[in-house]
Specification:
The structure is a single chain. The chain has two domains: 35 residues; 379 residues, no CATH class. Helices cover 81% and strands 0% of the residues. It contains 20 helices and no strands. The radius of gyration is 24 Å and the shape is globular.
Length: 434
């Protein structure tokens, strides 16, 4: 308790002197305190720390690694080969008016929605380091291209933890609607500081896209083998960092639970939000979810006598916030760029807020829809879905990445064909009027 009070005091002093020259020294002292606090508690509770670390390793190797590796390697290759730039030019007329970001943002959004955290942030950081996005555009992209994947929300959380498919559909819809809403709001982020770009309808996007693709192929000085080797190396390095954060926060949450920190914050939350009449177990689940979303969702699923709307509301908030564990992973990737981590965390707060609002819209819709669907027909092989082998996971992720990439390319080409036909039609109508 003394260590906690000392740390809280240091944090308040740090916040007060943020713009003072003493800020770096206090920040350094706070980091020393956190490290010492963690080491002392690991020494004091070695068995609990070991079990938590083992759980973190198991989660990373059996869940995160096979799910993300194909996406990381594939995205690296597509960027190097110029395919992402090709897609971006074709989708520019759609994504620019909505989110005020380059067309490549559509590819990042598709990859983030499909694979989940932290795929979107990795791609944005990579594009920013290559100067393909301006700083303002990258900050806008981070606001809505950092999402969870449907396999986690529907498969792991809804079916695996709550045993309720309708819950997963409600959560996923609210989660993605919240992300889109935040992205639309962030289109006005530092709008006055951005130069104005005008896109004329008569621009030949298809010609520009293929020209850019062929130029990328021509300018590439590396062979495909070198590009593949570099993609594998960078992807594995990033996944090792992600794994380290998963293990670290698994240990931190276990230690905070043992020393009573989670319980203390939960009691404070219950008293502060007394008008919602929340249970202590619900508060503990939410507080745990603030640190690590999987743990928070798991604790929520174990609560008895909790309404469906509360399950959907708090689970959506936890997943949209994503937890300090995901924030730390994102910060490690953002730290290699000139982007602002604070702005990213603020966007995740807005994401959690808007997603929770959309829950009240999605729950009635899914409840009505599921009355007319025979769900057991789709879950006949639920055992296989919930307990896949490591090989099947990585094969499924590979197929999913290829499918999504082909789908995005086809949709972008069809979009440009539609624009081309529209221009021809309006041109014909204009000539007929003359």
């Amino acid at each position: 308790m003394i260590l906690f009070i000392f740390g809280l005091t240091l944090f308040l002093i740090l916040y007060k002197f943020k713009k003072n020259s003493i800020y770096p020294k206090i920040k350094h002292l706070l980091l020393i305190f956190i490290t010492c606090f963690l080491v002392i508690n690991i020494i004091k509770f070695p068995d609990a720390a070991f079990d938590a670390a083992k759980l973190g390793v198991d989660t990373w190797f059996n869940v995160v690694f096979p799910a993300l590796l194909p996406f990381f390697i594939g995205a690296e290759l597509l960027i190097s080969l110029g395919v992402v730039n090709f897609i971006g030019i074709l989708l520019e007329p759609i994504i620019r008016p909505i989110f005020n970001v380059p067309g490549e943002g559509s590819f990042i959004l598709a990859m983030s929605i499909t694979s989940g955290y932290p795929m979107g942030i990795k791609l944005i950081s990579q594009f920013r380091n290559k100067k393909l996005f301006s700083k303002i555009e990258a900050q806008r992209l981070m606001s809505f291209c950092s999402t969870s994947g449907p396999l986690f929300m529907i498969g792991a959380v809804a079916i695996g933890m709550f045993h309720n498919t309708q819950l997963g559909t409600s959560i996923a819809l609210a989660h993605y609607l919240g992300a889109i809403t935040v992205g639309i709001l962030f289109r006005f982020y530092k709008l006055k500081n951005q130069y104005k770009i005008y896109y004329k309808v008569k621009n030949n996007y298809i010609k520009r896209a293929f020209k850019g693709l062929f130029e990328a192929m021509k300018d590439s000085s590396k062979s495909f083998g070198e590009l593949l080797g570099s993609a594998v190396k960078n992807s594995v390095e990033t996944l090792l960092v992600v794994g380290g954060f998963i293990i670290l926060f698994s240990v931190i949450i276990r230690l905070l639970t043992i020393i009573g920190f989670i319980q203390a914050i939960s009691c404070f939350m219950k008293d502060w939000l007394f008008f919602f009449d929340l249970k202590k177990s619900t508060c503990e689940a939410v507080v745990s979810g603030v640190f690590e979303m999987t743990m928070g969702c798991k604790l929520l699923s174990e609560i008895k006598d909790i309404s469906f709307i509360q399950q959907a509301l708090f689970t959506t908030m936890i997943i949209s916030w994503s937890g300090f564990s995901i924030h730390a992973q994102a910060a490690s990737l953002i730290g290699k760029t000139d982007l602002n981590t604070g702005t990213y965390i603020f966007s995740k707060f807005l994401h959690a807020l808007f997603s929770s609002m959309f829950v009240f819209i999605t729950v009635p819709i899914t409840h009505t829809a599921f009355k007319h669907i025979n769900i057991p027909v789709f879950l006949q092989n639920s055992t296989t879905i919930l307990n896949p082998t490591w090989t099947s996971k990585i094969l499924f992720s590979s197929k999913l990445f290829i499918s999504i990439t082909i789908l995005v390319i086809v949709l972008s080409i069809l979009l440009q064909i539609f624009f081309l036909i529209s221009r021809i039609f309006f041109s014909f109508q204009k000539n007929e009027g003359l």
